[in-house]
Fold this protein.
Amino acid sequence: MHRNSQKRIYGEYIYFITCNVRGSYPFFINKILCDLWIEEIKLMKIKTNAQLFAFCLNYDHFHILIKPDNKIANYSKVMQFFKRHTSRNINVILGYNEYDLKKFTHEGTERILYPEGEIGQYRLRMHEFDEQVAGFRSDFVSKFGDNHDIPKFSWQKSFYDHIIRNKRDLDNHIKYTLYNYSKHNLPDDWKYTGLRYTEMLDEVEE
């Protein structure tokens, strides 16, 4: 269903993307990290203005279907932001990264995407996100303590991509993505798929 692109092709396309955890460690068997991943997807949409048509998080990888807003960030930049941001925050939760809300900063906070009067609203959202990360960290420590055996988190260096060619191709990849958890024998009620978060998904323009 996908390939490893050595040469990225940019344009007004919808992209099917797969990204794997380095070493295939099943980090996302942990509900707290899954919940963070969902919040990171929401933040990615706000940060980059990318449209999201489907997603599925599995224990050691994820699939998404996105259409980037190339005026703000092409899909390589979208993935760069998402991978860097999730890695940092997952390692905050696991206790590998030091965390200080007063010193925690985000790249490009005052985005061109937000008119002058809305910059404050964006800053408020980032503050709320930081509070969520702190909450996830607290929940993790309460459940597992600091003496756990979960390794430090990182994504594989690259990612797989496929440019959607036509409506049939799109329909096939949406179905493949949304139901991908069943292919990997995850629970039937697996929560971390676009099937359970339809409010996060954008409608495909005909």
Notes: Confidence is low (pLDDT under 50) at residues 1-5, 101-119.
